[in-house]
Design brief:
The complex is a heterotetramer. Chain C is α/β, with parallel strands linked by helices. Chain D has helices at 2-6, 61-68, 91-97, 114-120, 130-135, 139-157, 173-186, 203-220, 231-237, 255-260, 262-273, and strands spanning 21-32, 35-46, 50-54, 76-81, 84-85, 99-102, 191-195, 223-227, 240-245, 248-253.
Chain lengths: 358, 322, 654, 274
């Protein structure tokens, strides 16, 4: 209905393969980005920062990471929580070990370390497939969390076993520690999300992305056209873990400020991120964002409505929330196994064809 | 071979094997459903929790959703002193069968012919729902479960061999062994059992046996509900009924990897290997690396095993057809 | 621009215009073609380079001034360049219909004794090679798409790219030759030769000079204020005069961009992508589009259907008036704006017509319903009247004076005259020079004062000055009272009703006219099915009282519309019958192209005609039919003869 | 090996010119457990020819193709490619050597568009690393568009422009086969293996496919080895035919001569008509 495509023709492969091939989409996207970057920070308070935006950005980042592995490369992973822990602990060690290091660098290195660990735990994917692999990735989840519990060096021998994020800055702006400004952490995380979403988009639209999808759709055929399964799977594990590690570092250092492995990086984290990409849409960056928004915002909404407005006791609200999330997952899987993004595509398709039905 | 002389060694072996039987029992629930419907049922652990909660509820005469009712002004908690254990067990059994029917109707039927990963995710969603419903119905507090099984160290064994073995574990093992035997026989020798196995390979073939897919699913989900009930009872008796009971599912997963998702003997042997392995590892290696290795050892063991034998314990070598 | 006495400002040939465009519009797109997934684009400067390279190649290969170059293929930039390249070297391009069969091509190529042929692909190459024995003059064939031609004998066969390569290599040494040839040309040099398909006899080669082509292009471009940023989609046959004037004449004169679709099959999609601003199409395409719209909307959800019909009926009410800038109430305007957002714009967008500034339809009469449908959406669709001999434009409809039943006012520079018999004549700078090698033909069409006979009968409306075409001049007769009898005009009016497949009107030299009707079995059958009316044959359905009533309604509506026209009022249909069989080419009643053979029908059904001119209400008849397998049989029927209400002068006045 | 070379023809019955052997199979034996799939088979494929492998179901034809492109590693025998003895390799390494193939049961990437599927065929020709791709702007983008251009020519060649952006899972069977051929062609292979390219097609689709195979051979000089059941097609397009039965080679000749070969008539044609 809104699209006016006539006359919007492509004269180069560059314009034909753009992320937003439709003019209207492109314009809307940049308007949204401009609002997010230049308007929202002025109206931000701590509640919106800590309860909504930071978790959304960070989980979206993790979801994009997992989507690269699961949605694009077809390797199901239940180890996201563990990899987030690696990112978090790596950033903690870097922050305390090299206090002068800029936070951006800290987080990127933490991502790199996680990528390494990811490759290590991804190695079995060469021999193990499907559910076996999914279960095998749980090994990383349990092992890593155990490791950060038992290996005292990782938490600098603190008595509580907790890690706390000290004050560090990014280009002179404080982004971690107790004295951060909401706009600073907001923009810091938004920047990471934007950057990494862009990188993910670049990767999946090119040669390497196609090699992942080829492995996902038909590994035998992928091999005969020259895709080395080792390289494809390991690169997916590495890049996915890199994303997840960055998300884990931000999760601990910027959002929570303190963490303890058993709670903060439990298997529930792994499941939550997996839910995000399934509900949002496998093999779609937009789907990762939608899924993250859904899983992050739904509980907030519930809490506000059930406890805040209806005055239902907290525990009952919590149980109802669990039931509702579970039921919604089942509902979406039944109604649209390809995720909310599939609804979005259908809607867009209909709008483009409007008033015609096909 | 000095450790063979260590009396603790035997104690650990036995308690490891006994724990292994319990793992096998939970794993069996997975295998049954996977074989019959190709569904990797992540809700198996929550089913056990739900079953145990229900049993306790019946035993103690709790009113379901009492807490929820209080929101609307009805302050009730118990309607009496509860049922005798055997009746409570029976009722719980019926609840599990009813639940199985609901699951098949609401969740599985609409998802027929979907990919495995989708069904897997659906069972995770199901696990959430069951967990929430269980808590809402019976409350989230830790509950004691007593079904009259003997407890405490077995004096007989303590006296004769000097080993410290809990009677509860022995009885649990005995129950588990009986159940495993029954299920194996059921699956191998009854018409229904064969139909169940057929359906995993070919839905059409199962239909030609004359049983509808729906019925088959209901039966397997009921059976695994019963298995969950037993597992829940055993586990609950040992450490109380609480949320962590649902995590026994996570214990069964490495067993499945080791034994294969479709193999009943695999589940049994795998369970024993893992039970034994993790106890020994924890006892001998654990102290050196900080302990609490049970959380991950089973997974690492299964993982390393699979690297060398991707088809699992009893699987056949996979030849890829092009 | 500097004012000169000379009408074309010094750019009196197409090659000169190309040089001008390459100079002033150098970086603007000149040609686009959808190929390899994207719209490959050539600017005017690049186009000049390509054309020059080809021209040099042609010179090097021995093409001389005044020789003819046949061009066969679908619309592609490279083929449009070959027109200009041929003109550059002083040769005459002769485009040939690419779907023509061997014999037709053979005739044209033989008649114009083409020396070179530039073809699109293997298919056309094969056609030419097959008939090469009959074409002694043809020496070289140049092909564009090399696919499948690798193994052909290449002694007289050349790849387009290779010719350009030769041209580039020889560019330096041939500068003078090329310059000389360019400067030898005047505005009276032949620009192009277009063969008219001709309903009778062999095709005639219409010779158009630069003056003809450019004055037509200039006049029409100024008439509609075309700009160099306009876009057209070139998808109609290159051998057709319209495509030549639009994509060669006007494109060069104005400097707008010519877009070529990927293939005929993808034309609709390509149209949507390009969204041309200047669009031409015969009525057939508009009809097909409308049918597609209707069919697609049939499957839409109820809400959409309701919205669609609600706003379409509003558009029907006020759309045309808004487009014509007439007074429309504010409420209606708001409602139209809402409809525009919800329906009209999206609809136009998905048809690819949302950017059309000027749209034309011509070639045959367009159904008023169809015409109004597009206009009510806000598309500035207009009609023009023209022919090859006129360099297309005879009359055009000016903006805001658009009606379905006229063809507009004389194109600037064109004089009009109505002959005694009612035939339309015109005279202008753009009228053709002559028919190639056919002086008698030329003389019979164009008199010594330059008046060209169109062969069509028509009249100029007194109040508006618009021309209205009635019929082919030879088909127009007189009623007994001397008023005009235009059977085809009336028949076409009837045939716009979907229920009516064919109509034959009689009345020449009679006091009043009568009609035979053939119902459209598909449309009426569909109606019958919806209304649970069962029937076993055409005959039975045709005789159904409801069907007869519907047809009568249609005829009476036509009568009303005819009565509003003083000249045609006499043609109103007084009596009619629905034929008991479909007119059929197998029975000789129609030509293979489904044109009614009036004479044969008059003989064969004389009994029915007689009955129509009597007072009978029924008539029994028996007719011989030929079955598909060639067997003959006969069907007998009793037909109902109906009187239709006729509007007399008096009623009209009231 | 000399036997083969002595009888090596230089021109085909269809007027094609042959070069040196591009691939030579020497005494290949392949066993699965106790089952012998291929027994001591030798044949060669000459540069520029269209070579057909025929035989009844279960004759070992597909196994042969799998040996050629590295899915199976024969227990005995040597494989020579491009004049060199080939050491055991993974299939993806063989792809880099210039062998591409299609499958009997279409093996397309169902979740991807026609364009993306054929783009994957360019995999071996694209070199840019992960970092360069992550940045996209510059090198990776340029490489992408250069390869897109080649892929578009393949699309044009196979006349599948209209389905360029359609998800292949939604395409009809015949078109999927064509897309799969496109994917193999995009690799610009030296040797193209086709496993029953016309299986399940109607007459018209078969004609189209035959034309494409001939055009590929003609336009790009690609050597083609194909398995096909339809003898009519084989007669029309193949230069030489290997006939297999129960893992053994029972004939190797021009199509005309093969039809006259008694062993072939007994084993293959007899069986096929039952």
């Amino acid at each position: 209905m809104f699209y006016r495509e006539a006359g919007d023709f492509k004269t180069s492969y560059k314009s034909d393969q753009e992320t937003f091939p439709l003019k209207l989409d492109k314009v809307l996207f940049w308007i949204a980005m401009a609002i997010a970057a230049f308007v929202v920070p002025f109206f931000l308070n701590e509640y919106w920062e800590k309860a909504i935006f930071l978790p959304f950005f960070i989980y979206a980042l993790a979801a994009i990471g997992l989507n690269i592995l699961t949605g694009y490369c077809g390797q199901v992973s239940l180890g996201t929580g563990g990899f987030m822990a690696v990112g978090a602990y790596a950033s903690f060690k870097l922050m305390t070990g090299f206090p002068a290091l800029d936070m951006f660098v800290v987080i990127m290195i933490a991502g790199l370390i996680t990528a390494g660990v990811g490759v290590l735990f991804g190695l079995p994917s060469l021999r193990i497939k499907g559910f076996y692999l999914a279960v095998a990735t749980l090994a990383s989840q349990f092992f890593l969390v155990w490791l950060f519990n038992k290996w005292e060096w990782t938490y600098n021998y603190s008595a509580t076993g907790q890690i706390n994020s000290p004050q560090r800055d990014f280009l002179g702006i404080v982004v971690t520690g107790p004295y951060t400004k909401p706009w600073a952490t907001y923009l810091f995380c938004l920047g990471f999300l934007f950057l990494f979403a862009w990188i993910a988009r670049n990767l999946v639209r090119g040669r390497i992305g196609r090699s992942w999808m080829a492995i996902r759709d038909m590994d035998i055929a992928a091999e005969i056209i020259g895709v080395n399964p080792l390289m494809a799977k390991m690169s997916a594990f590495a890049i996915s873990s890199f994303f997840v590690g960055v998300a884990g570092a931000l999760y601990f250092a910027v959002w929570l400020g303190a963490a303890e492995p058993t709670e903060a990086f439990s298997i529930d984290q792994s499941f939550d991120v997996l839910f995000m990409i399934i509900i949002g849409g496998l093999g779609s960056i937009l789907g990762s964002l939608i899924g993250a928004a859904f899983i992050v915002l739904l509980p907030v909404l519930f809490k506000n409505v059930f406890v805040g407005i209806l005055g239902i006791p907290t525990d009952i609200a919590e149980f109802s929330q669990i039931i509702l999330v579970g039921a919604l997952i089942v509902f979406f899987l039944i109604k649209e196994p390809h995720g909310i993004v599939a609804y979005w595509r259908t809607l867009k398709g209909k709008l483009r064809l409007w008033p015609f039905p096909y | 071979m000095f450790f063979l002389l260590d009396p603790f060694f035997y104690e650990i072996v036995i308690s490891g094997l006994l724990a292994g039987v319990m793992y096998a029992l939970v794993a069996l629930g997975f295998v049954l459903i996977f074989k019959a419907s190709g569904i990797f049922n992540f809700a198996q652990g929550v089913l056990a929790l739900f079953a145990a909660l229900t049993l306790v509820g019946f035993q103690t005469g709790q009113i379901p959703f009492a807490h929820l009712l209080s929101v609307f002004g009805f302050h009730v908690s118990h309607w009496g002193s509860g049922f005798p254990t055997i009746i409570a067990l029976l009722f719980s059994l019926l609840v599990m069968i009813g639940l199985a029917w609901l699951i098949v109707q609401i969740v599985l039927k609409p998802l027929v012919n979907q990919e495995g990963i989708i069904l897997f995710m659906a069972t995770i969603g199901l696990a959430y729902v069951l967990e929430g419903v269980g808590d809402l119905m019976w409350g989230a507090n830790v509950k004691e479960l007593n079904v009259g099984l003997p407890e405490g160290p077995s004096e007989f064994i303590l006296d004769t061999t000097d080993m410290f073995i809990d009677k509860l574990e022995i009885s649990a093992a005995v129950v588990a062994i009986i159940l495993v035997t029954v299920l194996t026989l059921f699956s191998a020798y009854t018409k229904m059992g064969r139909a169940l196995r057929a359906v995993a390979d070919d839905h059409q073939a199962a239909l030609s046996v004359g049983i509808s897919l729906e019925t088959i699913w209901w039966i397997v989900w009921s059976v695994s509900g019963i298995v969950a009930l037993v597992a829940g009872v055993m586990w609950g008796a040992k450490s109380g009924v609480q949320f962590s009971l649902s995590l026994i599912a996570l214990k069964a997963l490495p067993v499945l990897m080791l034994g294969g998702f479709t193999s009943i003997p695999g589940a049994i042997i795998g369970g024993l290997i893992i039970g034994l392995g993790e106890k020994l590892f924890e006892f001998y290696i654990g102290p050196m690396i900080g302990g609490a290795t049970e959380n991950w050892f089973a997974y690492m063991l299964a993982l390393i095993f699979l690297l060398f034998r991707p088809q699992g314990l009893f699987g056949e070598k996979i030849i890829e057809r092009v | 621009m500097e004012k000169t006495s000379e009408p074309f400002n010094g750019y009196y040939t197409i090659p000169k215009l190309l040089e001008r465009n390459a100079d002033i519009y150098s970086t603007y797109p000149a040609y686009r073609e959808k190929e390899y997934g994207i719209w490959q684009t050539w600017t005017w400067a690049q186009s000049l380079e390509e054309v020059t390279a080809l021209a040099n190649g042609l010179i090097a290969m021995g093409l001389k001034e005044g020789e003819n170059v046949a061009i066969v293929g679908r619309n592609r930039p490279a083929l449009y360049w070959s027109f200009i390249a041929a003109q550059m070297v002083g040769a005459v391009p002769v485009p040939v219909y690419n779907d023509a069969v061997g014999d037709e091509i053979a005739y044209v190529l033989e008649h114009c004794s083409a020396k070179f042929a530039i073809v699109g692909d293997q298919e056309q190459c094969d056609k030419l090679l097959e008939i090469k024995d009959k074409l002694p003059a043809l020496t070289e064939i140049i092909y564009l798409d090399p696919r499948g031609l690798r193994k052909y004998d290449h002694s007289n066969l050349h790849a387009y790219k290779d010719v350009q390569k030769i041209g580039r290599e020889n560019a330096q040494s041939q500068i003078e030759t090329l310059d000389k040839r360019l400067n030898n040309q005047t505005e009276n040099t032949t620009c192009v030769m277009l063969y008219t398909s001709g309903t009778t006899g062999k095709p005639k080669g219409v010779v158009l000079t630069y003056k003809n082509v450019l004055s037509a292009s200039k006049a029409a471009s100024e008439f509609d204020n075309l700009k160099h940023t306009d876009e057209i989609l070139a998808y109609l046959p290159m051998a057709w005069v319209g495509d030549f004037i639009f994509a060669n004449g006007q494109a060069l004169w104005v400097g707008f961009c010519v877009n070529c679709p990927e293939s005929p099959e993808t034309m609709q999609g390509d149209l949507k992508e390009i969204g041309p601003t200047y669009f031409f199409s015969p009525p057939r395409i508009f009809e097909t589009m409308l049918t597609t719209i209707t069919i697609r909307m049939e499957d839409a959800s109820n809400l959409k259907k309701k919205l669609f019909s609600f706003f379409m009926s509003h558009a029907k009410k006020v759309g045309n008036d808004i487009l014509d800038g007439k007074n429309v109430g504010i409420a209606d305007r708001i409602k139209y704006a809402v409809g525009d957002f919800l329906i009209y714009k999206p609809l136009k967008n998905s048809l690819g017509l949302s950017r059309v500034r000027v749209g034309y339809t011509a070639g045959e009469a367009i159904g008023p319903e169809i015409f109004d449908f597009y206009r009510s959406l806000g598309i500035n669709l207009k009609q023009l009247y023209g022919q090859t001999e006129a360099g297309v434009f005879v009359t055009l409809q000016p903006d805001k004076e658009v009606r379905a039943d006229t063809v507009g006012v004389a194109c600037p520079g064109v004089e009009l005259k109505i002959g005694e018999s009612g035939e339309v004549f015109y005279r202008s700078d753009s009228s053709f020079e002559c028919y190639y090698k056919n002086p008698e033909g030329t003389a019979s069409t164009k008199d010594k004062d330059g008046w060209v006979a169109t062969g069509d009968a028509g009249f100029i409306e007194e109040d508006s000055g618009h021309l209205r075409i009635i019929d082919r001049a030879k088909d127009v007769g007189k009623m007994a009272d001397g008023s005009l009898f235009a059977p085809k005009y009336v028949e076409n009016k009837l045939k716009f009703y979907p229920n009516i497949l064919e109509a034959v009107i009689f009345g020449n030299n009679k006091s009043h006219s009568c009609a035979f009707i053939n119902i459209d079995l598909a449309a009426v059958g569909n109606w019958a099915e919806r209304n649970n009316i069962s029937y076993s044959s055409y005959q039975e359905l045709a005789g159904h009282p409801d069907v007869v009533r519907q047809i009568q309604d249609h005829i009476e509506e036509v009568n009303i519309s005819l009565s509003s026209d003083a000249m045609l009022s006499g043609c109103q249909i007084h009596r009619f019958l629905i034929l008991h069989k479909e007119l059929d080419a197998d029975d000789g009643e129609m030509t293979r192209t489904r044109k009614v053979r009036r004479r044969i029908i008059e003989d064969k059904y004389s009994d029915l005609i007689e009955a129509l001119y009597s007072n009978k209400t029924q008539v029994s008849t028996e007719t011989e039919v030929t079955y598909e397998d060639g067997r003959k049989g006969s069907i007998s029927a009793t037909l109902e003869l109906r009187d239709a209400e006729v509007v007399t002068e008096k009623v009209k006045a009231a | 090996m000399n036997e083969v070379n002595e009888t090596q023809p230089t021109e085909s019955v269809h007027g094609r010119t042959f070069g040196a052997p591009i691939m030579e199979m020497k005494n290949i034996t392949m066993r699965f457990g106790g089952v012998i799939a291929i027994q001591d088979i030798s044949f060669d494929i000459l540069e520029g020819e269209i070579r057909a492998i025929i035989g009844p179901n279960g004759a070992g034809k597909s196994s042969m193709l799998n040996v050629i492109n590295g899915f199976y590693h024969p227990q005995e025998g040597e494989i020579w490619f491009g004049g060199k003895k080939r050491s055991p390799m993974k299939p993806y390494q063989i792809a880099y050597q210039g062998i591409a193939r299609t499958f009997q049961n279409i093996a397309l990437f169902k979740g991807m568009s026609t364009l993306d599927n054929i783009m994957t065929g360019r995999f071996t020709h694209m070199k840019k690393g992960i970092v360069s791709q992550a940045i996209w702007k510059g090198a990776a983008e340029k490489e992408e568009y250069e390869n897109r251009e080649i892929v578009e020519k393949v699309i044009d060649f196979l006349e599948i422009q209209s389905i360029r952006k359609t998800e292949v899972g939604k395409l009809p069977y015949g078109l999927q086969k064509r897309v799969e051929l496109g994917r193999a062609l995009a690799a610009e292979p030296k040797l193209l293996l086709l496993d029953e390219p016309m299986a399940g097609m109607n007459v018209e689709e078969k004609e189209d496919m035959s034309r494409f195979i001939l055009d590929v051979n003609d336009e790009f000089g690609t050597t083609v080895a194909l398995i096909e059941h339809d003898m009519g097609v084989v007669m029309d397009i193949a230069d030489r035919v290997v006939v297999m039965d129960y893992g053994k080679k029972i004939g190797d000749d021009t199509p005309e001569n093969i039809l006259k070969n008694q062993a072939v008539i007994d084993a293959y044609l007899g069986v096929a008509h039952e």
